[in-house]
Design a protein that fits this description.
Length: about 220
């Protein structure tokens, strides 16, 4: 989704925004924030449980289907055989559901939105702590983080910024970013968000004459 021209545009937007502020803007884009394989496992267990529940609720119906499929006639099902059928059915359902979710779009679709939001936030925090937190002299770093598969973004500010700027202030930047992202115009969204963040930072943290660039302006892809 990003070309070299897009990367250059975002980097230039960061440079331009930082020309008027002591704040340091870090931009990060990732294909997805988590593999959600634990969610796939939960779905597989759930489907296997449903299969066992269906077998328990209507055992004669399902055993008759097996008799018809195998060409059996008045077969006498022993408890051991019934348990064997239940084990096979549960295993087949479990493995089938796992195999289906090997296709990541389906796995992502089946992941509840609150889980995706929490995972994106957690990954953004990790990136912030590594790439921006307390890495500037005045604690004025701020991260703009985009997770493409989830179509979600986070803006996380270092302590000095958080003390002066309420989180709601970043709403306009988030709106601009996500609006472009929904239209698959990632670079436009990043540039718009950087410009809006830069305006807020310039108001609260004007650039000093001896200010130096402490964090990279380039777009980071992880």
């Amino acid at each position: 989704m990003l070309t070299d021209t897009d990367r250059t545009r975002v980097a230039q937007a960061v440079t331009a925004a930082e020309a008027n502020t002591a704040g340091e803007i870090v931009t990060i884009v990732t294909p997805r924030s988590d593999s959600y394989r634990d969610i796939a496992l939960i779905w597989a267990v759930f489907v296997a449980f449903l299969a066992l529940a269906a077998l328990e609720l209507a055992p004669h119906f399902y055993l008759a289907l097996i008799d018809a499929a195998l060409g059996l006639w008045a077969h006498d099902w022993s408890p051991r055989a019934v348990f064997g059928v239940a084990l096979i059915v549960a295993l087949v359902k479990f493995l089938s559901m796992l195999a289906l979710q090997a296709w990541s779009p389906l796995r992502l679709f089946l992941t509840p939105p609150p889980v995706k939001a929490a995972r994106v936030h957690a990954r953004a925090l990790t990136c912030f702590r590594i790439g921006a937190e307390s890495r500037t002299t005045g604690h004025t770093g701020i991260l703009i983080y985009v997770s493409l598969a989830e179509h979600r973004a986070e803006i996380i500010a270092d302590s000095a910024i958080a003390e002066r700027v309420m989180p709601e202030v970043w709403g306009e930047a988030m709106h601009a970013l996500l609006g472009h992202l929904r239209e698959d115009r990632l670079a436009d969204g990043m540039v718009a968000a950087v410009e809006q963040v830069g305006r807020v930072l310039a108001e609260h943290f004007p650039r000093a004459a001896n200010d130096v660039n402490e964090l990279p302006d380039r777009l980071i892809e992880v």
